[in-house]
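Structure, all two chains, one model.
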Amino acid sequence: MTPDDGRPLSRSHRNHVSYIDKSREFYAAHGYDEPYRWATNTSAPFTPLTKPLSACTVGLVTTSGIHADDKPADAAPPLPKRSYTWPTTPPPKRMFTADLSWDKQATHTDDVETFLPIQRLRELEADGRIGRLADRFYGVPTEYSQRRTGLDCERIERWCREDDVDVVLLIPL
Amino acid sequence: MSLVARHLEAAGLPTVVIGSARDIVEQCAVPRFLFVDYPLGNPCGKPDDVENQRAIVGMGFDVLGRAFAPQTTVQAPFVWSEDNSWRDHYMAVDPGELDRLRAAGEARRHERAQNKIRFAAAD
């Protein structure tokens, strides 16, 4: 694999894109003096899986939002910049992603399965690979205060408990 | 999102993150991470490529089922394209555009300040 100019793929730096470096340079050019302070930890919690995946209810968390024109039949539409729940049946045909940072030049988000894979999860459910997909998925907006993120964490945990979720798949765009 | 994974895991729910921003997720440190080296936007597979999507989501569950320690990263064995130019193009700062970018930043800061007033009233 070679880049445009025919040089071999460089090994002088990490192959994967450093979004921390990119965003620092990008926002500095926009006149933001203080670089964004990304969450930093040196360790992570760990809960071993104690039952087979084939017996697990799977919860799904997305950073995408509900499209403004997709209103629930019996409830108010989710507020912008608030965590929310939404039914997994029927799977949404579109999601609102325009406000998120993703590569709008290289790709698109018209195929919802590329970031909210409800139909793929239904197939795994049919194959017996997972027990079942929970009846709702959960949305968590990004880019705001730590206080709000903490509140979102608690709300999503509560929703997972209500839905008897055993394991959680989290997919940031 | 990584903070949500850490919270749920600490509360006793095993989690796996599927994502494409490797440095951001690993700096936050999550229990299990399937890294998909694609442009941001399609961590679960290429658009309209059901086989690719199925492979990636299935691999997410492999990581969930088999990781034995926190901060496990597995890289999905797929490349976006032979052409790697997307890596350089994303968020690229063109030196000839600096004035325009700074003006866009000013406009954004103004809009944010207005929104802050509006959201504070709604809270």
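Strands of chain B lie at 15-19, 32-35, 72-75.
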